[in-house]
Amino acid sequence: MASTIIARLPARLRDAALAALLALVLGIPFIGLQTLSTDQGLAIGTRWPWLLAAAAVIFAGRLLFAILADLLAERRRTARAGRSLVSEALAGRLTRGFGIGAALFALTLPFLPFSDRYVLDIGMTALIYILLGMGLNVTVGLAGLLDLGFVAFYAIGAYTFALLSKFFGFGFWLSLPLSGLVAASFGVLLSLPILRLRGDYLAIVTLGFGEITRIILLNWQSLTGGPNGVSGIPRPSLFGLSFDRRPPEGLGSFHEVTGIAFSGEHRLMFLYFVALGLVLVASWGVWRLRHLPIGRSWEALREDEIACRSLGINPTASKVSAYATGAFLGGLAGCFFAARQGFVSPESFTFIESALILAIVVLGGMGSQIGVVIAALFIVLLPEFARDFADYRMLIFGAAMILIMIWRPQGLLSNREPTLRLAGRSAAGDSAAKEATP
Amino acid sequence: MTAPLLEVSGLTMRFGGLVAVDGVGLTAQTGAITALIGPNGAGKTTIFNCLTGFYRPTAGRLLLRHPDQGEIELQRLPGYQVARHGVVRTFQNIRLFPRMTVLENLMVAQHVELMPKSGFSVAGLLGLAGWRAAENAAIDRARFWIERLDLTAVADEEAGNLSYGMQRRVEIARAMSTRPLLLCLDEPAAGLNPRETAALGQLLLGIRQEFGIGILLIEHDMSLIMGISDRIHVVEYGRKIAEGTPAEIRSDERVIKAYLGEPEEEEMPAEVAQDLAQDLSQETRP
After folding, report:
1. Are B95 and A307 an interchain contact pair (Cβ–Cβ within 8 Å)?
2. For residue A310, which residues of chain B lie inside 8 Å, CB to CB?
3. How many domains does chain A divide into?
4. So what's the ipTM on this one?
5. Fewer CB within 10 A of the terminal residue: chain A, N end or C end?
6. B67 has a chain A CB within 8 A of its CB
7. Cα B173 from Cα B144, distance rounded (Å)
8. Considering only CA atoms, which of B129, B132, B90, B131 is closest in space to residue B109?
């Protein structure tokens, strides 16, 4: 490995020297010469040491980058295709362990000493993105159907709750399944025209669907309030108990009934737990679906549609159900989003959201649920940690994403855990096997 | 002779101005191995594609005599429905689900049966006992075919990582997991070495014997065809030129002409002619 790097060294040195020479020449007017204001007016001074230093930096930098690139290429060549950092069995245990650990941490987060409004708020944002990521993961990760307009289902879920509460006074818990179902029906609607599309065309149509949804929300003033959005969306209640200091008519309030002193944070904690509950139920549901015929048919569809047809699987049904399931989860996330904000407007549902959710799925490793969790945390938390860098925040975010995709092009968790294994299952009796065959 | 399981008549497939298949008729019996042979480009795979619902034939009738459901005209079914009625195929260029394990491939094959048993996922989501029993039965059937095709050691490996010969076997196991009436194999011996080909022949004979299903086979390997087929249909330029037992086909002048060319027009190098003649006459059946 080292030998090839050394063998290439003369060429790299030459290349770096050339770059330095070029910098030297270009640098003469830019760095080497300098105007000085003296008593007699402007004079030209020189900064030759600076110029030399700049050339030296460029020489070293160019050399370093070239060697790094060589090292990376070499590593990729020597690494076997598909090999991961750790053994498959260990990876499986690690991800499971991480999943349980993350769930426990999430459950105790509101009670931890450093937890405050800010932490809970970020936590909720992360949970919403995890939920969205899980939804899109069904469509893109499992069924292999690209969707660049996933934000539409998020928006439809949010507006369903907002409008149901505005016009019919529906509460959160009743609206939650309805939002999911409405979004799922739009998922079916979207899936019908794109059954025969693939690749670029699929990307364009789904992208268009996302934008159309947003533009309709923006322009249908009489229904959606247009750019003003819908406000006054009710908060979720706990078995009819409100978390407000003065509960609305007809509702008891949490602090009065339980006798716990009123605190504005209780409402946040409750919302946080609602989001966490949604995520836990959703991840359980998706995990179960993956192990059912429907989930296997999604993955089979991703792998080879023609082979699916040859086995009697209706690809249309698989596609429609994959879009509908993904959209359902997107709708739930939207409903929760509306409840948390108390206000929705088309501004929250721009293309960048679709891109972020897709980034979560791709970054996490297509199809991996734990991967979605890690990637969502990454995508939500990184911009927060980078707040100190102010304007450079998104730049750092983008650079980090690029680096991760170079480091792990298959996503953070690219190991696919089989849905079932033959090894370790007790062999059925011969009679059962005979019965099972034609 | 009982009425054939599959009766194809007047099958024509036209792509624009090109007539790929022109009025072909053929039959396949239950419990028999029927071979479809012909030079490259003769239209064999097109016939398969029509038969298994991948093409809608321009004209013709594909009649399947289903023991439970009566007579079914396959050309009228939506493509994916053909497999549900027991006509299941494999592909010339293997089409597995490469990133799923062998066992999962075989479970996907049982999707049509399992989907209703999972209560269209409702019973499955709740983990009801009825669903668990159905799933176990499906796993047992998959295990049977995994063991039968000697894939036990790689049952939990991703199918895409297996060797070519193993992938061919997985494809047959997957097709058999659907419990077909007629198993259609498109060049199953392509890319196999002579030993693997001989084993494949034994396997197909065993399947025919044990399960009494029909097997329809496209193949170029003459030793395999002549060794295991009960009946052979020969197509050339989209038309059927001969039909008969291996012995009849071997001595059929039109077939020899189709494969070897006309001796008057073209002088074939002696060793090539000898090889072909040897291939045609070779017997592998014990």
Report:
1. yes
2. 52, 54, 83, 88-91, 95
3. 2
4. 0.85
5. N
6. no
7. 9
8. B90
The reply to whether A215 and A269 lie within a common domain is yes
CB A243 within 8 A of CB A266: yes
Q: Residue A47's domain spans which residues? A: 2-78
Q: Please indicate, yes or no, whether residues A274 and A399 belong to a single structural domain of this protein.
A: yes
Q: What is the CATH number of the domain that holds B49?
A: 3.40.50.300
For residue B17, give the DSSP letter.
T
* A295, A134 Cβ separation under 8 angstroms: no
- Domain end among B132, B154, B174: B174
Same domain, B224 and B202: yes
Rounding to the nearest 10 degrees, give the CA dihedral for residues B247, B253, B254, B256. 80
Dig out the tokens for B236 from the structure: 């050339």
Q: Count the domains in chain B.
A: 2
Interface test with B, best of A84, A306, A310, A325 (most B CBs within 10 A): A310
The residue range of the domain holding B120 is 98-174
Instruction: Give dist(CA A235, CA A232) in Å, integer.
Output: 9
Structure tokens at A44: 């030209």
**Claim to verify: residue B281 and residue B199 sit in the same structural domain:** yes
The reported pTM is 0.80
pLDDT, mean over chain A = 84
CA dist., res. B142 & res. B144, Å (int) = 5
What's the CATH number where A183 sits?
1.10.3470
Please measure the distance between the N-terminal and C-terminal CA atoms of chain A and give it in whole angstroms. Answer: 56
The 3-class secondary structure across A391-436, one letter per residue, is: HHHHHHHHHHHHHHHHHCCCCCCCCCCCCCCCCCCCCCCHHHHHHH
Question: Which chain A residue has the Cα nearest residue B145?
Answer: A437
Look at residue B260 and tell me whether its pLDDT is greater than 80: no
Which residues of chain A are within 8 Å of residue B108 when distances are taken between CB atoms? 296-297, 299-300, 308, 311, 313
Is A293 within 8 Å of chain B by CB?
yes
Q: Are B80 and B184 within one domain? A: yes
Q: Does B97 touch chain A (CB under 8 A)?
A: yes
